[in-house]
Amino acid sequence: MQDFLRNLPKVELHLHIEGSLEPELMFALAERNGIELPYSSVEEAKAAYRFKDLQGFLNLYFQGMSVLRHEQDFYDLAMDYFKRASSEGVVHIDIHFDPQAHLQRGVSLDVVMSGLLSAKQEAEQSLDLSVGMIMAFLRDRPAEEALQVLEQAAPYWSELDAIGLDSAERDHPPSKFVTVFKRAQELGLARVAHAGEEGPASYVIEALDLLDVCRIDHGIRCLESDEAVERLYQKQTVLTVCPLSNVSLNVVDSLTHHPLPALLDKGLNVTISSDDPAYFGGGLLANHIACAQSFGWDEEAFLILNRNAIKEAFTTEPRRQELLARLDVVKY
Ligand code: HPA
Ligand code: ZN
């Protein structure tokens, strides 16, 4: 099974590129940029990655990304992950990135975008990997700031596939961002949002109704509302579920109790992703292996999940057809 999962062409729709920053690279960039880290070693950093909840993780996530200052740092961050993912059989990734978290530290949008876009171009040329770009807004910051960043990103609109909504979910409902998402719609950008991770099922419904999203990131708490499940089922809105992330952030108490099988039983359009692989115990392959072990799924289940992901990936139609055709000939 592990060989099958490694060789399977896998697609991940939910990955925060800043959350792919491994401690080894964090230390290298800290040294390069003369930045002091609160850890004395890679081991000490890894030992600190035990989270009570989403906010506990976000504190270390924002601290970790403080080593990213120059275009080269963003390029190195993304290429490091793209190479690792590609070596594990990942063929497409839609990346989230958090411009506000960098702007706040005095790092310009040009620095962030040029580094990430060069890495995307390099990966698409030299690896068997396509990359989608999701500019995410921090929902615990004011909506006016998000709108301003979206306008500021005008030179890059044509490079973006979508906008997203992430960071601390509780008490920051989708309704807060209606104006930003309307503007993105006017610009012809797709919309996605985290909802139903720590927040209630009603946020899933709000994201569908008020933000007109084509994707719900996480969404697992939809199971607490028949209406949310029904709406997701009727529209077949894709859910980007991140099993190892949910266990790390205590959104579920163990993988064996994870609602993934229940979501599939309801006929929902489920996919799996790694979210923040450097912090949550592994990338997309590790998430696949963990699901195989915890749920006893057969090969067909993983073909279905990756077919779902390919159909919804932010990529060109020829690439989508190519990836679907490659799944059709996978042997097991
Ligand atoms: N949830 C919300 N915001 C995030 C996450 C997450 O899992 N990872 C990075 N930003
Ligand atoms: Zn996420």
Automatic annotation (TrEMBL):
Keywords: Hydrolase, Metal-binding, Nucleotide metabolism, Zinc
InterPro entries assigned to the protein according to its UniProt record, in alphabetical order: A_deaminase_dom (IPR001365), ADE (IPR028892), Ado/ade_deaminase (IPR006330), Metal_Hydrolase (IPR032466)
NCBIfam families: aden_deam (TIGR01430), PRK09358.1-6 (NF006850)
PANTHER family assigned: ADENINE DEAMINASE (PTHR43114:SF6)
One protein family per Pfam: A_deaminase
Reactions the enzyme catalyzes: adenine + H2O + H(+) = hypoxanthine + NH4(+)
Biological process per Gene Ontology, one example term: hypoxanthine salvage
Protein name, as recorded: Adenine deaminase
Domain of life: Bacteria
Family: Belongs to the metallo-dependent hydrolases superfamily. Adenosine and AMP deaminases family. Adenine deaminase type 2 subfamily.
Source organism (scientific name): Halomonas citrativorans
